[in-house]
């Protein structure tokens, strides 16, 4: 074959043929750089409100803020009703003992018909004494001088030669006296005591075993014990 000759001039383009089928898509090229942002368009109308969503979980409590200034005091409200009494609390420690007061009276308590319960106090004396009362009502046949027997039990309860008359009294005016003679009371009268007369004689004697007992000296400790004793009897 000989050498190729020079190419002749290009002829006119013929008519476009029918489009062939689309070929397979080639691989995606790399993304180009983002263009500049265009101007913001005008705001469209607000859409309808959607349904409220469920409440989310409560967040953690924030730190306590500083205390604000105290407000002015309000007016006192009405007093509430008294609550029920609480249980008794424990007994507190015992305080120091106070001074002992005077000893209370020695008394006997009796029940009366119209005046309830009443206290009768004992007679106190410098000595330990017993008392007895003799009442004489039958004077028929008596003269201005006569004797009355003393109760023998009273005599044996007293120290010898300590029984004496301390009071005489007659229900009618009369002048008379009395004294103890051994185991009797001798009565002497200037006037004859009539059959309707009543004579009352009071005797006293020193309790047996206490002949020389009179205002004995005591200590402060005995004084306190004596006061405490009578206090226990008065409860």
Q: Your description of this structure?
A:
By secondary structure, this protein is mainly β. It is built from two helices and eight strands. Strands 3-8-5 form a three-stranded antiparallel beta sheet. Strands 4-7-6 form a three-stranded antiparallel beta sheet, with no helix packed on it. A hairpin with a 2-residue loop joins strand 6 and strand 7. The model has no long low-confidence stretch (mean pLDDT 84).
Topology:
Layout: E1 107-111, E2 117-121, E3 129-136, E4 145-149, H1 152-157, E5 164-170, E6 176-181, E7 184-189, E8 199-206, H2 220-234
Antiparallel strand pairs: 1-2, 3-8, 4-7, 5-8, 6-7
Features:
single chain, 235 residues, mainly beta, 3-stranded antiparallel beta sheet, 9% helix
Low-confidence stretches: none
Helical fraction = under 10%
| Average pLDDT, all residues | 84
- What percent strand? 15-25%
Query: What's the shape?
Result: rod-shaped
Give a short overview.
With 235 residues, this protein is mainly beta.
